UniProtKB/TrEMBL annotation:
<dbReference type="InterPro" id="IPR036409">
    <property type="entry name" value="Aldolase_II/adducin_N_sf"/>
</dbReference>
<dbReference type="InterPro" id="IPR001303">
    <property type="entry name" value="Aldolase_II/adducin_N"/>
</dbReference>
<protein>
    <recommendedName>
        <fullName>Class II aldolase/adducin N-terminal domain-containing protein</fullName>
    </recommendedName>
</protein>
<dbReference type="Pfam" id="PF00596">
    <property type="entry name" value="Aldolase_II"/>
</dbReference>
<feature type="domain" description="Class II aldolase/adducin N-terminal">
    <location>
        <begin position="34"/>
        <end position="104"/>
    </location>
</feature>
Length: 140
């Protein structure tokens, strides 16, 4: 697990009303492969124990609903946590979250991103070639 502060993910503070869109939807296959089909979104909470409890609650709810740990946790006004089995997996997830944030922010400035339909996200996340890519990147 890593808690880097990628430059573009910090910009969520100014677009937080749209952060829910980003957390629950995906725009391109690489984002699905590296960051999962959705992320946990934790509203602003004071640092320390209150934030730790909010993160735990968000992760537990995600795990109960999806049967897996999230790869990305977005924290309003705090940043991003990437989860992976290795340092390389955390780095790959962080880099893709940063790329996705750049794309999202650019699209938002032009009227809004166009997300993949949920059935396509599910299809892509279960494709054998994409599962192979996850293993090759040591994400799965």
């Amino acid at each position: 697990m890593g808690g880097p502060h990628p430059s573009d993910c910090g910009k969520w503070d100014s677009l937080f009303p749209r952060a829910a869109d980003y957390a629950q939807q995906r725009s391109f296959p690489d984002d699905i492969v590296c960051c999962g089909d959705r992320s946990v979104l934790v509203p602003y909470t004071d640092p320390g124990v209150p934030l730790a409890k909010a993160i735990r609650q968000g992760v537990e709810e995600f795990q109960q609903g999806h049967g897996v740990l999230p790869r990305v946790i977005l924290l309003q006004n705090h940043g991003l946590i990437a989860i992976g089995g290795t340092a390389g997996a955390v780095e790959a997830t962080t880099r893709m979250a940063e790329k996705s944030a750049k794309i999202f922010l650019g699209a938002a400035s032009l009227g809004g991103p166009v997300f993949l339909p949920p059935d396509q996200v599910r299809r892509i996340s279960g494709r054998p070639d994409e599962l192979y890519r996850q293993k090759a990147l040591k994400l799965a």
